[in-house]
Amino acid sequence: MDTFVIKSLLQDVMRLTAQHIVLVCVSCGAAVIIGVGLGILSTRHRRVRKVSIAVASVLQTIPSLALFGFLLPVPLIGGIGQHTAIICLILYSLLPILRNTIVGITTVDYPVRDAAVAMGMTDYQLLRLVELPLAAPSILAGIRIALVTNIGTAVIAAVIGGGGLGVLIFRGVASLDTLEILAGAIPAAALALLADGGMNLLERRFQTR
Amino acid sequence: MDGRVILNRISFDLEHGETLVLLGRSGSGKTTALRLINRTLEPSSGSITVDGRNIAQLNPIELRRKTGYVIQEFGLLPHWTVEQNVALVPRLLGWPVEKRIARAHALLDQVGLDHKEIGQRKPYQLSGGQRQRVAVARALAAEPGLLLFDEPFGALDPVTRHEMQQQFLQLRSRYHVAAVFVTHDLLEALAVATRIAVLDCGKLELLTTPDKLFSATTPTAKAFLDTLPREAARRAGR
Ligand SMILES: Nc1ncnc2c1ncn2[C@@H]1O[C@H](COP(=O)(O)OP(=O)(O)OP(=O)(O)O)[C@@H](O)[C@H]1O
Ligand SMILES: [Mg+2]
Fold first, then answer.
1. Any domain includes B235
2. Of B62, B64, B124, which is closest to A119 when you measure between CB atoms?
3. Which residue would you say has higher pLDDT here, B35 or B50?
4. What angle do CA A203, A205, A207 make, to 5 degrees?
5. How far apart are CA A176 and CA A160, in angstroms?
6. Which of A69, A109, B51, B233 would bridge B228 by S-S if both were Cys, CB 3.0 to 4.6 A apart?
């Protein structure tokens, strides 16, 4: 193998890793906003909770490859390209974030919530001063699951022209080129480990003891 | 609440400077009565008036901030320091930081806790009795005119408990506050009450003064008097 091939492969790895990170960050960011928001609403309105959990659970059971496929023909949000991949990844990340937000808020100790209300907190103050800080470890654990899973799932984005490290892996599989497969898989695994470690540190900062 | 009647036909008046003790067995509805007064529960019928105004017409948030409540299980916020916990209601009321921290320090000292030693600790780093006193300090922080004390000294040793009762009496005469004070402890009831309401299964069995309690003939009141050690009862003139 000559240096030119290696050099161009390295360039591909850099470019596609950057794409991969964008896919993951944008979709996770949006999933956090939607998931935490819906989670908070769910603890205030039982109907919202039922519907959102049901929808997110169904989305989670669809195999990721199929979900990408389903979105392709949908007008406006579908089609070939990065945006379809991002929407798909958002839908896929919703459940763990939503569920952990609800669990975190609803498992705040009863006397703690009771006292906060009895001292005269408004619902917003209860949320901001008590429920969210105490639910933070649980919410962060949900985000961590979503993030790490997302890094793996984003590989499939390549199938619908979403780019990312999947491009190398699929190309490698098609041409039976182990080096190329590894060039896609190793950075993806490294990203997942990095994300997991980073989230772990963040979670620890929010432990009450 | 699932259609059961928990409190029925309870009625009493409370003047400033008075302490009404709710005495009753476990499950008799004492906590429920306190919750009705700060509107963390709404009565299915009947009304409650504070300073001449029906509380159903008051803003519940403001009512609660003006009412000093020690809840039975303390309910300190586990992620806040002791100091922040005590300064909670002043914070909600928008007091400046220095003022509310100074207030928290003064109150911690008043309930017999050294603010320098424990002010920065989290609640899990305290003993049960210390936690309870933090909850008492928190209830007093914004100078409430009405106190709702739900077994506020239940976790204290007898000596500290006695000190806290004396503190309570001083506080009452100094600020002229009205208090509803829940306890199962007859001796404590006698020490702090201006009047005693005996509750039984959600009903007001007896409303009387500490002196007259000794001649009471109703079943729960008698049952409570029977718990006094015989010697104490003899001295009390039974
Ligand atoms: N949220 C609730 N839903 C239904 N029933 C309740 C609820 N809270 C209390 N009860 C019932 O109401 C009755 C009175 O309860 P309450 O807490 O007022 O008793 P208490 O006199 O404070 O007892 P204790 O001395 O054990 O604290 C009890 O039978 C209790 O089981
Ligand atoms: Mg009670």
1. yes
2. B64
3. B35
4. 75
5. 21
6. B233
pTM of the model: 0.88
Structural domain total, chain B: 1
Mutation to test the A interface, candidates B58, B77, B85, most A Cβ within 10 Å: B77
Reported ipTM: the value is 0.88
Task: Read off the CATH number of the domain in which B206 is found.
Answer: 3.40.50.300
Task: Name the more confident of B235 and A102.
Answer: A102
Structure tokens belonging to residue A190: 């490294």
Distance A136 CA to ligand 1 centre (A): 31
Using DSSP's 3-state secondary structure scheme, residue B198 falls into: strand
Q: Is B203 helix (H, G, I), strand (E, B) or coil?
A: strand
Domain count, chain A: 1
User: DSSP 3-state assignment of B78?
Assistant: coil
SS3 for B197?
A: strand
For residue B2, pLDDT over 50 is answered with no
Whether residue B122 lies inside any domain: the answer is: no
Considering only CA atoms, which of B185, B187, B113, B99 is closest in space to residue B143? B99
Which residues of A fall below an 8 Å CB-CB distance to B? 109, 111-122, 125, 129-130, 133-134, 208-209
What is the CATH number for A137? Answer: 1.10.3720.10
Residue range(s) defining the domain that contains residue A163: 3-207
